[in-house]
Amino acid sequence: MRTGPIIQKIITFLFVLSMVGGCATVHGPGSENDPLESYNRAMFDFNEGFYDYVLDPIVDAYQFIMPEFMQTGVSNFFNHLDDILVMFNSLLQFKFRDFIHTFMRFLYNTFFGFLGLVDVAKHMGLPKLNEDFGQTLGVWGVPAGPYFVQPLLGPSTIRDTIGDYADWEYVNPINLHVDDKYTRYGLIGLSAIDTRISLLKVDSVVTKATIDKYAFVRDAYLQRRQHLVYDGNAPRDKPSFEPSSREDLELEDALEKELLQ
């Protein structure tokens, strides 16, 4: 049994629910790259509430129970699985050097890093790369489309949402090769916890330092995705997504390492 249909039904339900709430509570036209702003702000608030009252208490318990070296191992393991997606999308983008780079990472970490629990490859001059099908579509010339906040998953665009689905449905080894549904759900939950931990420091700083957190997250996400699609060399005719204010620009500079890693 696969989780795909179940997840799709949940996301569809939350989408419809948030659209109703968004239309009722948020007014005014969206910005040029955010025509769905009414919906997006409603879903952003929904996600923030879920993180604050559901996910973050679980994360706190996880960090209290799990020793730091085991947390690092979990992060390394999911990065190891993600390297499969990176290899696949590197090939689709004809980035053969990146494919070989990530393939060697995967081999070293599989055989010498205890199936990826230890990232030995980074100490061998093979740092982790970042490629996904959303980026692949961008390289192929597919426009990003409107900014879109996914239920529970957070910032995205229409193109990246399609990319996320394709990566999960056709490449992700958890979905393709873990048959036991409870093991699959457990791995998905553990991955969500690990991802949330990696974002907590940035999230805390952004919450304290910016007036409009939604706008900052949106602009930072769009800028980061443009950076990734064009490997930091966007053509001059492509729009540059700037933070909403000078204060946000200064904050983004301070967080550049985390946002663009």
Can you give a write-up of this model?
This protein has 261 residues and is an all-alpha fold. Helices cover 67% and strands 0% of the residues. It has one domain (4-259). It has eleven helices and no strands. The protein is globular. It starts with a helix and ends with a helix.
Sequence of secondary-structure elements: HHHHHHHHHHH
Unreliable residue runs: 1-6, 9-29, 256-261
The backbone outline, from C-alpha atoms, is globular
Structural category: mainly alpha
Radius of gyration (CA) equals: 19 Å
The proportion of residues in beta strands is under 5%
- What's the average pLDDT? 85
- What is the terminal separation in angstroms? 35 Å
**Sheet with the most strands, sense and barrel status:** none
Q: Note the total helix count.
A: 11
What is the count of distinct domains? 1
Number of strands: 0
Helix content: 55-70%
SSE layout and pairings?
Blueprint: H1 4-25, H2 37-65, H3 68-92, H4 96-111, H5 133-139, H6 158-170, H7 173-177, H8 181-209, H9 213-229, H10 246-254, H11 256-259
List keywords for this structure.
single chain, 261 residues, mainly alpha, globular, disordered N terminus, disordered C terminus
